[in-house]
Fold:
Amino acid sequence: AQTVTQSQPEMSVQEAETVTLSCTYDTSESDYYLFWYKQPPSRQMILVIRQEAYKQQNATENRFSVNFQKAAKSFSLKISDSQLGDAAMYFCAPYSGGGADGLTFGKGTHLIIQP
Amino acid sequence: DTEVTQTPKHLVMGMTNKKSLKCEQHMGHRAMYWYKQKAKKPPELMFVYSYEKLSINESVPSRFSPECPNSSLLNLHLHALQPEDSALYLCASSQEYRLDGELFFGEGSRLTVL
Structure:
């Protein structure tokens, strides 16, 4: 079974600044995937970034990057140059594939962007 | 086409009504999912269909009845619901079931049960 913890229910950041959202997880699998999904208000949930656990290099997607610490089971999301459109709920989700059944989401972090 | 389309966007129904939620994708994905999301909570998995066969039913009450008529369509039939069933119902699809976990979501159907 997998568990995932997002310890920040809400975060606030000034536009153009950098913010880091934290996520820790627990899994007995050695090979798995990690995802950050974004859910803007009244809009569909979309994938922000993914990380394969066997890769040591941290994933990046434009202004979004992760700090993946496998031994610590930590997977934080860094958003650089924050924009108003980044305001959303952010969900962390580990996935071990194989016998796993769908994604298990963390409780989410509500990100507020201050203009 | 990378869309998952859900209809209706909003639905209000009484406890004795029968209604259906519909979901469609044309990405050739072979797995489709129903999630339930209450306000300020993460989505919770309800059902998974893989190759049009029900793979997972997460102990969902029988008043929710899923159906997968073909690989592109997924329905959720609703009957005798309770007010606590009011929520956002999300449909998602993935290339394969139990592959890499990447899901494509629809915008959801917001259900209110009176």
Observations:
- Chain A has no helices and eleven strands.
